[in-house]
Design a protein that fits this description.
The chain is mainly alpha-helical. The chain has 5 helices and 2 strands. A two-stranded antiparallel ribbon has the order 1-2. The longest helix has about 30 residues.
Length: about 150
């Protein structure tokens, strides 16, 4: 009696195990990480590939896409922070009517605004270093006393 025929694997094709597939199955990447961050990517339309001009290695499409998304989200974050800074600046801008009137008067090249009490000209140079301040309540009380007399 002859031995039973055992089918050999090589008859049906060669079994080749890709190490990269095993790495992916274990949750690792196909390629080991390198020290290059792939900041200068070249998108070659003729060869339909992406490669880094710094290290001259081919970059996977997902990694290139992830880099683009990272840069886009960082730029978007910078724009949002700038927008909030501009909104704060607009909020703290001098908006009082008196400040606008004084600005408009100082923009004139031939005239200067006058002090309402002593009728002397108030020039921008007079207030650059700051202005003297007084209590509004005291000033209003003094005006009331002088108007009552």
């Amino acid at each position: 009696m002859s031995a039973p025929i055992e089918p050999q694997d090589y008859i049906y094709g060669v079994k080749v195990v890709q190490i990269e597939d095993l790495r992916v199955a274990r949750g690792l990447t196909r390629r080991p990480t390198s020290s290059c961050q792939h900041q200068k990517l070249i998108y070659d339309h003729n060869e339909r590939r992406i490669w880094c001009s710094d290290c001259e290695t081919e970059v996977e499409a997902f990694d290139a896409f992830e880099g683009l998304v990272r840069r886009l989200s960082a730029a978007n974050g910078r724009l949002k922070s700038r927008e909030t800074a501009l909104a704060e600046a607009e909020q703290f801008q001098a908006r009082s009517r008196a400040a606008k009137v004084m600005d408009e008067a100082w923009r004139s090249t031939k005239t200067a605004p006058l002090c309402p009490h002593c009728n002397t000209a108030i020039l921008p140079e007079d207030v650059v270093g700051g202005v003297a301040k007084a209590s509004k309540a005291l000033v209003l009380a003094a005006r009331k006393r002088t108007s009552d007399k």
